[in-house]
Amino acid sequence: MQANQASRIQSVSHSSPHLLADIGGTYARFALEVSKGDFQHVRSLLCADYPDFYTAINTYLQSLPNLQIEHAAVAIANPVDGDQVSMTNYHWQFSIEEMRQKLGFDTLLIVNDFTALAMALPRLGPNDVQQIGGGEARKQSVIGLLGPGSGLGTSGLIPAGDSWISLGSEGGHTSFAPRNEREIAVLRYVWQHFEHVSFERLVSGPGLELIYRALSEQAQVVAKDLSAPEITQHALQHSDPQCEVALEIFCDLLGTAAANLAVTLGAMGGIYIGGGIVPRLGDYFAASGFRARFEEKGRFSRYVAAIPTYVITAEQATFIGAAAILDAQLKTLNTEPGSAILGQIRRIRPDLSPAELRVAEHVLAHARAVVNDPIAEIARAADVSQPTVIRFCRSLGCEGLSDFKLRLASGLTGTVPVTHIQVTDDDSALELGAKVLGNTASSILQVRNQLNRDMIERAIQLISQANKLEFYAIGHYGVVAQDAQFKFLRLGIPSIAHTDSRLQLLSASVLSDKDVVVISSSSGRLPELLEVAEKVRERGAKIIAIAASHSPLIRKADVALIVDHVEDVSTHLPMVSRILHLLVIDMLAVGVAMGRNPGAASLLQGEADERLDEARPTRSPERKVGAKTQAPGVSLASPLAKLTSHSR
């Protein structure tokens, strides 16, 4: 029977079923999506029964028929930033890539659980939600999401053309503010145990227990040892007055948290309530003080009264969202790899030599195997020499095979891709501006993922030791050279910018082996710049090239700083790519400044921040370059760790 079942599952639209998981602080839920929206083998496991995530997921896999699972998406109650996952409300922790290899999956996508739930909202029907109170959703408007469970998850959806952008948020940790004397008494009790009281401390399962204990102390009665489900049950059955009041306060506080999210996001598309508590309250929640508290917003009461609120009743909503994110990721990897290294390889195939093309085809066909194979095996499989493999890696801006494998592994286990949104004739001035800024920010993130720490460190070292520094660029990129000259002259380094090809050749002819030339070119193919690069090499000077991967200029450079952003200069000026080249100059200038003069580093970083403020997503202060100063002569490894903290 299991064999027949396996055969039936394999025959549906997915080439193999997709494994989906929803991991909370109490339960780990699993399912197989055998075709779009068809979830089978749904099972919940108690997290406390398993020592780690691998044991839980492996237990589920062993309960299935003999199936080949290649792709999996896990929604987890935790921020997801990088490879290492450490759950906030539970002790499980793991490396995404190590877990993928251990499980033998081609793809293991880990996303925040409320990011996944948010992506399910546009796919829910009228029977999947229950509206609480009035209001009417505006089409193509921002949607807010929150839900209490082991914690208080929050997220949002922003419309982007025919798709949506999900916000990764930790809004549950915003500071709690009481609205009446009863809530002030609860706050005083909680202050005895926690220095900072967030909404999550109270609007969650553990929070409901805290509220109950606070009310019991206030009533001078001994609090029973009750869990959140037991408190809820007593409240619904009217069998314990403290439990009843606790649940009333819980619903009121959720109304305040939901209203805060609504006004913060401008969520005219509605506020949705998920999580493991509210959907189980049924009619009680509809009759609670939630909606009344939601609309108590002072001068903005009319504003929030127009926003509808919904309880998500669909049992598999998180699976729906996780499946949608996984489908988008697989489609991106297969058809539009963006700036990931596989995308670079696809773009440069026409320019490769026959031997390098064999390496490229082998990598594209066996990407997962290449991550683990030694160089001898890769060379044998591609029928090339080992030096050819190394040349191929370096042409992509990698230091060598090890660095190439790191970037390849990162691209194969990435999260939801950042997309480019096309500007159209119908856009308003506001929409046009938002798209231009959004596309610039997207490109910055893509280049950030290409950064090679070793290359940047080598470039900074060359510049720091140069007797003279020259910057060459032509046409629209002349401003990059001029900006660089200004920055490095302020650092006390003899610098000059040449934007005329004749002057570049004349200047290159008098260089020495102690000089460094930085050449900025989007394509890396301009004959004038290639000619001057040859002259620089003849004179023994060093070349730092800022250009597209695998371009002729990159091959001639001593240090390659890859910037892959294709713009059609026949129809408009190169806007985004010039900003990217300017940012690379900023990184080099700040890196040099931090090794020579900490004060100058702060000044230069201030200028870089001004350029980035409107283009990049907000980052925490500790990640800002220049947050710490450094004495002259100290190793550049520490500032470079900040400059390239997200490059791998």
From TrEMBL:
InterPro entries: ATPase_NBD, Bacterial_glucokinase, Glucokinase, Homeodomain-like_sf, HTH_RpiR, RpiR-like_SIS, SIS_dom, SIS_dom_sf. Belongs to the bacterial glucokinase family. ATP binds at A21, D22, I23, G24, G25, T26. It is found in: Cytoplasm. It comes from Undibacterium seohonense. Pfam families: Glucokinase, HTH_6, SIS. Keywords: ATP-binding, Cytoplasm, DNA-binding, Glycolysis, Kinase, Multifunctional enzyme, Nucleotide-binding, Transcription, Transcription regulation, Transferase. This is Glucokinase. It comes from the Bacteria. Residues 339-415 form the HTH rpiR-type domain. It catalyses: D-glucose + ATP = D-glucose 6-phosphate + ADP + H(+). The keyword Cell membrane does not apply. GO terms for molecular function: glucokinase activity. Residues 613-625 have a biased composition (Basic and acidic residues). Residues 459-598 form the SIS domain. Residues 604-648 are annotated as: Disordered. Signal peptide: none annotated. Its EC number is 2.7.1.2.
